[in-house]
Amino acid sequence: MKRRTFLLILGVAATVPAAVFYRPERVMAINEPAIIEQLKKPRTAWKALVSPEAYKILFEEHTEPPGSSKLNNEHRDGTYICAACYLPLFESQHKYESGTGWPSFTQPIAGHIGTKRDYKLIILRTEYHCARCGGHQGHVFNDGPKPRGERWCNNGLALKFIAHTESLPPLRS
């Protein structure tokens, strides 16, 4: 392909809204050991339960700035739960420093995460959500540490950390 043709195609593609390429799928749970019942609560009902910033991330699929989360420096033993419905999503032994500026994990709690394809940046990515409330958490990439090679890159505002010395709060409904 000639350079001029390539640049023309690239220029046209940049003007097409990303929504044209976005094809949401049914949320699929990963390694589902038990069925997590999805809440039927409308997304707008979560506005009263989470901060405006967390709502944008969880239910409008925004992303927080890198390096802005207090959870980046959280190193205690505990559980990371969904900031909306309180479903446990990650255990602290699977958290690691990825250098990306977002809390990163090598694996989620089995069956507590759902995924879908994301074409918002035109390239295919795998987006993941809380399997219970559908709240957007982040994206999973295949550049993590061995043995799984996965990096579950999470928005800090989409999570709450509960130390193992504390009791997990009851699930919100």
N- and C-termini, Cα separation: 55 Å
Largest sheet, spatial ordering of strands:
1-6-7-8-9-5-4
**Compute the gyration radius: what is it?**
17 Å
CATH class wording = Mainly Beta
| Count of folded domains | 1
Binned, the helix content reads 10-25%
Mean pLDDT across the residues is: 84
CATH superfamily: Peptide methionine sulfoxide reductase
In the CATH hierarchy, the architecture is Beta Complex
How many DSSP-defined strands? 10
The CATH topology is given as: Metal Binding Protein, Guanine Nucleotide Exchange Factor, Chain A
Helix tally?
A: 2
Give the ordered list of helices and strands: HEHEEEEEEEEE
What would you call the shape?
globular
Structural class: alpha+beta
Could you explain how this protein is built, in words?
- It is a single chain.
- The chain has 173 residues and is α+β, with helices and mostly antiparallel strands.
- The protein is built from two helices and ten strands.
- Helix content is 13%, strand content 24%.
- The strands form two sheets. It has a seven-stranded antiparallel β-sheet. It has a three-stranded antiparallel β-sheet with strand order 3-2-10, with no helix packed on it.
- One of its GO terms (cellular component) is cytoplasm.
- It catalyses: L-methionyl-[protein] + [thioredoxin]-disulfide + H2O = L-methionyl-(R)-S-oxide-[protein] + [thioredoxin]-dithiol.
- It comes from Nitrosomonas aestuarii.
- It is an enzyme of class 1 (oxidoreductase).
